[in-house]
Amino acid sequence: MLDVIDLNIEFHDHITPETVVYDFDLHMEEGEIVGLVGESGSGKTMSALSVAGLLSRKNMKKRGTIVFNGVDILNCKRSELRKLQGNDIAMVFQEPMTSLDPLKKIGYQIEESLVIHMDLDKEERRKRVIEALKDVELDNAEFIMEQYPHELSGGMRQRVMIAAALICEPKLLICDEPTTALDVTIQAQIIDLLKKVNKDHGTAILFISHDLALVKSLCSRVLVMYKGNIVEAGSSNEVFYNPGNDYTKALVSAIPKLEKKTGEKEEDNKDKKDKNILLKVDSLNAFYPVGDSLFKRGDRRKQILHDISFEVMEGEILGLVGESGCGKSTLGKSILSMVKYTQGNITHYSEKPQMIFQDPYSSLNPARKTGWILEEPLRIEGKLSDSERNIKVVEMLKKVGLDENFTERYPRELSGGQRQRVCIALSLMMDPKLIIADEPVSALDVTIQAQIMDLMLKLNREMGISMIFISHDLRVVYKMCDRVMVMKEGRIVESGTNEEVYFSPKHEYTKMLLNAAEKY
């Protein structure tokens, strides 16, 4: 069905041409599921976009051949390519919110391919859209058709994207990191859905991901990319259980595992039990306004957090897990007074606690260099001279593993891992004793994720910084944290040490989360 031979992609939008994909080969049969893994910037997405015919024909040079059912994707006419796109070849992207038009209703966006590729009347199109929504296991399809993207959850939006991609029954579905931003239970549902689509319709799937556990569970064959090259290819079992390439071995070894901790970590936990309280939260409730104003038309509000109480000790890393929309981020923001409507008591026993956000790129000022960004809180405080501020900036960059040359770089000139290191450095500038880390590694590939986790553990150990570590990845939380709280629908349903929560869970929801994590 698909033959990609010696694909090379070279960008010409800089002074010096830059090759991002070298001699890429891919052969896919009908109905086959192939995984493509590798770290950020390895060329995975560029290769997939070439297969989908979505790369610009300007500012870049493409060599090689991509033949899909006898059509030369690289050299065919635009009109011929458009007949394939959305009809025989479809694509699901990582972030559905930016892939869907915020101003159009869901039904309109799903039927768009039918309008372009098929001669159907309005009623026939409506029936096909309802069937497509039901196929991706979205109940109440007629209601969802009339919704806008912002009115759906992350998992529902991703299902809508899959429905839109499948509406014309394509022969090839390209999935580019379709589950990265989803929590573990929704992730499991999307993977099961892709398996069902493959089985019921015989749709071939090219699955791109940095989550090796998902790739292993879904794909029959795997290709590993590194710096634009395919460094290893074979069956899932061969690649994951008997890797031959050193880079593949590093990828596999970087996957966090749920294994009982012994020795040094247990001793650390005992030491932290005797420390002082750094944060005390007592009976916290948080609300968001509904409509124009919270109090204009009576008490119109939606309660997000319900009667939450806990403590954080000096030097402790407390994990917070739960599915998307359960209130994890709202809790983190409430602790830092970033939520306007709250009830209850939040007592800080330290000054200037800080926050690290999930997306480092949107957290950094794109118009300013890294040095300026890191200096900003010190300038506002007004206690240090210019030279003292510069010294502290360089010192913090070194703490997070970056040299002083990075002060002259803009955020766009940094990799994802480097940007996250800058965000961590920014959170350290005011010498906080408490940091709230909201999904700080979920968007990073597995090797960079391991580096950032090791860095945060090192800062905790050497500087005694306490953390509330928010994540939907139970393996990451297990590696990082001393204690864990499990949140569901704005309530803490279970809490305890890692060993208590992970190996002797009491609440049914915790058991469900752990089962989903072990499944993939």
Give a quick rundown of the structure.
The protein has helices at 44-51, 78-84, 96-99, 106-117, 122-135, 141-145, 154-166, 184-201, 212-218, 236-241, 246-253, 264-273, 328-335, 360-363, 370-381, 386-399, 416-428, 446-463, 474-480, 498-503, 508-519; strands spanning 2-11, 18-28, 33-37, 60-68, 71-72, 89-92, 172-176, 204-208, 221-226, 229-235, 277-289, 301-313, 317-321, 341-348, 354-356, 434-438, 466-470, 483-488, 491-497. It is α/β, with parallel strands linked by helices and 520 residues long. Helix 5 (122-135) crosses helix 7 (154-166) and helix 15 packs across helix 16 (386-399).
Please characterize this protein's 3D structure.
The strands form four sheets. The chain has a six-stranded mixed sheet, sandwiched between helices. Strands 15-16-17-13-18-19 form a six-stranded mixed sheet, with helices on both faces. It has a four-stranded antiparallel sheet with strand order 2-1-4-5, covered by helices on one side. With 520 residues, the chain is α/β, with parallel strands linked by helices. The mean pLDDT is 87. The chain has 21 helices and 19 strands. 40% of the residues lie in helices and 25% in strands.
Termini separation comes to 29 Å
Give the number of DSSP strands: 19
Q: What would you call the quaternary organization?
A: single chain
What overall geometry do the principal axes of the alpha carbons give? globular
Low confidence ranges = none
Q: What is the averaged pLDDT score?
A: 87
Contiguous helical run count? 21
Helix content: 25-40%
Largest sheet: 6 strands, mixed
What is the structural class? alpha/beta
CA-based gyration radius: 24 Å
Strand content: 15-25%
